[in-house]
Fold this sequence. Notes:
The chain contains 7 helices and 10 strands. The chain has helices spanning 9-26, 41-54, 80-87, 108-121, 158-168, 183-187, 202-210, and strands spanning 2-6, 31-34, 62-65, 67-69, 99-100, 127-130, 152-155, 177-180, 191-196, 228-233. 33% of the residues lie in helices and 17% in strands. Residues 35-39, 66-67, 131-133, 137-140 line the site of fructose -6-phosphate.
Amino acid sequence: MQIQIFQDKESLHRAVAKELIDAVKTNPNIVLGLSTGSSPLETYDNMIKDHQTSGTDYSDVVTFNLDEYVGLEGSHPQSYRYFMNTSLLNNLNIPLNQTNVPDGSGDLKEACEEYEAKIVKAGGIDLQLLGIGTNGHIGFNEPGTAFDTRTHVAQLLQETIDGNARFFGSAVNVPKEAVTMGIQTIMEVKKIILIAYGSKKATAIREMVNGPVTESMPASILQKHQNVTLFLDEEAAALLKI
Ligand code: F6R
């Protein structure tokens, strides 16, 4: 694992955006893996700003998102499809039919199989952006998820539901299930960039990097990936032993 530590969130987001923009410029047909949540938001803002001022071209880029809540249509303001469209995709020149978010509203088994098949057909994911939950989840792969999982329906743990309650007004409104890429799906991407900032993430970051590789800390599997870079601020990195 490579680790980059930034003094503040702003410089961290600028650096991650530069990685993504440079990757798109180097390979205009790149397959990007994207994530939602608060971690990538300002990175996306930087990418939009760059597209508007420098015209970086996304017309041949393909994207795959990590996850989607079960039961929410893409038009629901809290769906991850809606989040992606409004936070990034509608503001770049990428045709929306080249952007993929798991479908949490139809036949779920079929949706999971189709998602995996689409990733394979696209030639695999070149560069995946990840955040990390305070409990070490990546995607919606909660502690206890088997390392050999592919895209599947996951049950959200109460701590994840509580963590996302701020977006739904109250925890009771948060869906209890999500369709998520599995750990094995994530391990097969060519390159991973994981963003974490703030003291709330410090314990998960320490366990991911310095702890044992165990299914009770899903992100710890990334120790075994060949090309992972962590982009951390000083608070998220505070407990690391390096
Ligand atoms: C989002 C996702 C989640 C988040 C994680 C961190 O698509 O898969 O694993 O990355 O929950 O969320 P934030 O960034 O809101 O702290």
